[in-house]
Amino acid sequence: MTIFLALLPAYILSIFYRSFLSVIANPVMTDLGIGPRELGFLGAAWFITFALAQFPVGWALDRLGPRRTVAVTMAIGSAGAFLFATATHAVTGTLGMAMIGLGCSPIFMSALFLFARTQDPKRFGFLTSVFIGLGSIGNLVGAAPLAIAAARFGWRPSMLVMAGCFLAAAVFAAALVRDPPRAKAASGGHEGLLKGLRSILVLRPLWLLAPITVTGYAIVATVRGLWIAPFMSDVHGYDAIASGHVATVMALTMIAGAFLYGGLEQRLGRSKPLVLWGTGLTALCFIALALWGNTHAALAIGLFALIGATGFTYAVLMAHARLFFPEHLIGRGMTCINFLFIAGAAAIQSGSGWFIAEQRQAGLDAATTFAHLHWGFAALLLVPSAIYAFTPERPVRA
User: Fold this and answer.
1) Are 212 and 384 in contact, with CB atoms under 8 Å apart?
2) pTM for the model
3) Alpha helices by DSSP H, the chain
4) Shortest CA distance to 324 belongs to which of 196, 200, 190, 195?
5) Domain residue spans in the chain?
6) Given 78, 162, 190, 390, which is the most exposed site by the fewest CB atoms within 10 A?
7) What distances in angstroms separate CA 219 from CA 116, 216, 272, 352, one per listed residue?
8) What digits encode the pLDDT tens for the residues 247-279?
9) In whole angstroms, what is the distance from residue 128 CA to residue 185 CA?
10) 133-161 pLDDT, tens per residue?
């Protein structure tokens, strides 16, 4: 309960900041004088710094503990939140998003680190799913409520309020987080940042996990965080508030999916089948979206909702990976996996912005452009799933 009280408010804001740009994309682009390519990089800046920070964060969790790690990085993130809210051009906006990404980088990993070090391993997947499900309230805040607030008060005042919330959450986390006793390596020594990373990279099952880790979460985060609102406005003529309501529907199903996957994982004691079935269904939804979503708005909304529910396999995939890490490398192991999740999101957000800009320059209309994007997302889910199918369910003990 202490872990939830200390870190859940911060995690709600972390989820908010990775998903809010979609619903205020048009006013942000207008105010900062940018297009879809730059918007994609603006969103990617959060994910790039978040991803790169995972390696020092993992070392810091194992060696320094979560309390100091969270306090320092969230102070930087708070400054970035205020910088973004007052940005006047693309450079300061991107820098602000990068600082927020750094500030958010240890929050979820600190919770998982504390779960792994203080709770029964059999409960890890369930606790992670519950934490993600509750944290996904940030998805809701960054959907219709933000769209309504931005329409009534402007996007800058709305983001200044969120920056104040981030600062308050930073103080709250620093006051409540407690470090567990430090684990020792089997040899009695401690592995540094690079040596610990090498110990993780020689774990062969993680190489089979890596491709789906890079693409699975990234695609769902990119759709929810960047393109669902532009799709509904450009293809189906929805206004900003109506598009925000569609984003809210997807956010709600992501929350439901997190709880559903957590309950199923605890009941079955298996992660791999859930990831395979969920990813396969998500790919089929993208195929249907590419084929029919441009002509039927209600069908598109339903498919986005299903994508949110079936595609949010983040927690069970993390639980699967956690089985392969020795105790003294839990922090670095989980942050290494999280790096793949977030680096994939950075690449796909930036790449999708470039892709849409190129399609528009080629003279293609919005409906065709988004259909091509959804076909690409389906392929980026199916190919890694085929590789993941060869991953062992559990470590082979000698």
Assistant:
1) yes
2) 0.75
3) 2-17, 25-32, 36-63, 66-85, 90-104, 107-118, 124-135, 137-141, 144-153, 155-176, 193-201, 204-222, 228-236, 240-268, 272-292, 297-311, 314-322, 330-361, 366-388
4) 200
5) 2-179+192-388
6) 390
7) 27, 6, 19, 10
8) 889 988 988 888 888 888 878 888 899 999 999
9) 25
10) 888 888 888 888 898 999 999 999 999 99
